[in-house]
Every structure is written in structure tokens, then in C-alpha cells.
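REQUEST ID: PR-0412
SUBMITTED BY: lab tech R.K.
PRIORITY: routine
TASK: structure prediction, single protein chain
INPUT:
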Amino acid sequence: MSSFLQLALALSVLIIAAKIGGLISYRLGQPSVLGKLLAGIILGPSLLDILHTPFFTAPHLLEVIHDLAEIGVMLLMFLAGIELHLSDLAKSGKVSALAGSLGVFFPMLLGAGLIFLFPLSPEEAIFIGLILSATSVSISAQTLMELDVLRSRVGVSLLGAAVFDDVLVVLGLSIFSALAITEGSAGFSQVLVVLVQMTLFLLIGAGLGFLFIPRLSQTVRELPISQGLVAFALVSILVYGLAAEVLGNMAAITGAFLAGLLFGRSPVKERVESGITTIAYGFFVPIFFINVGLQADIKEIFGGSFGLFLVMTVLAIVGKVFGSGLGALAGGLDRDEALQLGVGMMSRGEVGLIVASVGITEGLINHDIFSAVVGVVIITTLLTPPLLRLSFSRSEPKKPEHNRNRSEKSMIPEGEGE
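STATUS: complete
OUTPUT:
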């Protein structure tokens, strides 16, 4: 069977499994994303290891699926951004800054404290703290959209806090890498360059988007091009994601989220949102969620790193819930809202894996630590959707002042709750 036919078969199986898993989870009263993640774990190396069966021999199959999953998470974050008003995000600035900052500080401090419990070097302990500081808000964003609370005070503050978290973690990773590789002023100058790059990307990206995206959207709408607006939006998502990584040293999902915010003020917002939603939830987003499980091998956790995995999992949960929660309280949210935001920041997802991958590539952590990190990513990613749903069931979410033009649930295909 050719490489293309193997890819076609693999994608068919994965998308069907993701949809069935999401449907079962929804019928059981849980967010559909939980079922997709579990489907990925069942099909992955933890249990069936379906992509390593005799049917699949193409050498780059997993890599292609991973790349498609990366597009999926970018589309997901674009849709989260397009649903928000910039004014709402600006009003949550204090909460977002405090929740994001303390959500980095607490886990990093707890992770560094592992040096007193395990035979770790100071560098390894600090880097573990940095890994535990990462947040992958894409899982929470999907859950918030399913619960119809993305535009609540907690939802807006959560997305803003994730941006602060991303900036601080990337800056921390740059500082650690610079000081580990170089010494003295050379290392600090590298850190300064990274900080300047982040600032310039956000300022220039937002400025150009404000000026040109609404105008270009109007122009493209008038052109005799089939689905021109959707194509324009897709190109913008990819370009902003590329620019975020290459020019801003930030995660591509941050660029996609920024593009969504900018398209949210465009007069063609609803047409763009409808087109991207169909592409995203019909193909790319299910691949993203199921790919998280495909990357995990639970069997490795039960090796020499099991004790480290258990402690890191507890610290990962406590650090985010208390750190981001305290920041939200200090920013003006009530206790229920602070708990909801803290739980929403709990998932590590692909961001934690990215930081860990940098660490093992640069020799900053060993394979046992990496296996434990993978376990933490799995557990926090699986726990976040049901705990987030439970936390919102305790109280009525408070909305920002602006009324929504369109419910997030209208984005969700019927019958699956996504």
C-alpha cells in the first residue's frame, strides 16, 4: 500500500475514533474533548499502537499526522480569538497578568523544590519547574466553548492569562538556555533580544492587523474568488503563527489567537468564522486532540520515573490551581471564578511537551524526567475538561458588559456537543 493510501486509512480511522469518542463522552455528560483524548490513548502506543501495525509502514506517517494536528490547534485558537472582543480582553488585563504571572511562579518554585526529594541537579530541578509552569489553553478553550462560557469573565481572563504564561515561559526558557550555553553578558544579551522580539511581534502584528485585516477582508469579499474570505483567513492564521515562532520566539498558537482577535473586529467575521469552523471541526481539530494520545506511552511512566511522575503530577495541579487562582483573586474575581480559572490553566498539553523536548534535546533533562513529563501532560490534559465542567456547574458564570452576537454553541456541530 502506498504512503498516500496509508495516510488516507490512518486519517479515516483517527477521525472516526475521535468523533465516536467525543459522542460517547458527550452522552455521558462530559466534554467531548475528553473522549477524543482517551480515543487517542487507546489507539496510541499505550494500548493498541495502531499506527505501528503491519498496515502502516510509511516512515513519515506520524510526522504528517503531527503536522496536521499543529494546524488543528492553530485553527482552534483562532476560533477562540475571533469569539472575543478586544475590549473584554483589555478589561481583564489585571486579572490576566496576575493569574498568568503567579501561575508561572508557583509551579516553578514547587518544581525547583524537587531537588530536596529526588537526586536531581539544580539545573534539572529548575528546568522541571519551568516545564510545570507551561500551560496549554487549547484544551480549556474547547471546553469553555462547549460550556458556552468562553465570553464569561473567567473565559476572557483565562485566555489573557495564557498569553502572559506563554510569554513568561518562553522568556524563562530563553534565559535558561542562554545561561546554560553561554556565560556572562552574552547570555543576558540573548535574553534581551528574545524579549525585544516578543514585544515587536505583538506590537507590529497587532498594528498591521488593525490597519489592514478589515480593509483586506472587504476587498477579498468583493473579488470573484471561490471561498476567498476563508482562504484569506487561513493564510492569515498560518502567517501569524509562523511570525510568532520565527520573529517573536513565541508559540504559533499565540499568533493564531492574535489573528482571531483581529478578524473578530472585521465586518466579515461571521462568514470567516463559519468557514473556518467547518474546516477545523470537520478535519483538523479532531486530529489534534487524538494526536495528544498518540504521542503518549503510558507504559514508560511505570518505569524508573514513576515516583517522580506522581510527585510532579501533584505539583503540576496544585501549582496552577493555587498560583493562577490566587492571582485571579488578587485581580478581583470571586472564589468560584478563581477556582475555575485555576483549573482551566492546569492542562500542559503540547506546550509542556515542547518545553520538555527542548530540554532533552539540549541535554538539560534525562529520559526518565522526560517520561515523567509525558505522564504529567497526559494526566493534566485528561483531568482539565471534567474538572472545568464541574467547577462551572457550581455557579452561574458572569459575563462581560458586551452582549454576544452569537453563542459559542452555534459553532458546535449538532449531535456531538463540540
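NOTES: The first helix runs from residue 3 to 27.
REVIEWED BY: pending
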